[in-house]
């Protein structure tokens, strides 16, 4: 699926929090949205699945304004992994992942063997197959997050919207989750705080500063020490992994400007 935001201006609580954001995500591309707390990442993601009406501008999914699409059509085509997981008291992991199949069924639809095949594969990919029979409410935060990813995969959507999907995960699962997402080949927009993950797994990144897209392009071109200082107020150096040859950011702490601002 191709996603476009056209001059998208969004408000929360009567205040403009995203201003004239224009971004195109090509089919199969992984776009990272980066920015400080409160810069508008989640707000943009909400608009991308029609949960928030723009003040002005549009979100288009394969050329169609999302505001004109039915909830069911959006649910069939877009999978969302939000920051606050839904309360699922009593469901097992497998049952929770099966919920991802709901938009594909008719009104009285039952689970088909295909549904369970898709659920099994999704649980394998997200690393929760061994937890299939465990109640979701007794999982750790990271296990729950992986369950949500499995559900998003089971949905077989054409667009994945992930809001800080790695925030409860241990180091190995952070890499694994982003690797899995990148390998799915589905158009993905992912709000991230970890710049190194963006460098490693995003095809392009959009950097937000107080609701405005201030940089857009390939992460290695965009994530320079100057940008990191300007947007995050953190001093950084770019280094190259001596073995893999990949670019990394070495974060050295807040800049003098940030310390002044915070005192
Ligand atoms: N429900 C709401 N009502 C009023 N203001 C809101 C609401 N949700 C978010 N905001 C405000 O909108 C702005 C953008 O918030 P948003 O959640 O999009 O930021 P974010 O970049 O995702 O932040 P974080 O990194 O902290 O998750 C912030 O100033 C926030 O306080």
Automatic annotation (TrEMBL):
It comes from Nocardioides turkmenicus. InterPro entries: AAA+_ATPase (IPR003593), ABC_transporter-like_ATP-bd (IPR003439), P-loop_NTPase (IPR027417). The keyword Nucleotide-binding applies. Residues 3-235 form the ABC transporter domain. The keyword ATP-binding applies. Pfam families: ABC_tran. This is ABC transporter ATP-binding protein. Gene3D superfamilies: P-loop containing nucleotide triphosphate hydrolases (3.40.50.300).
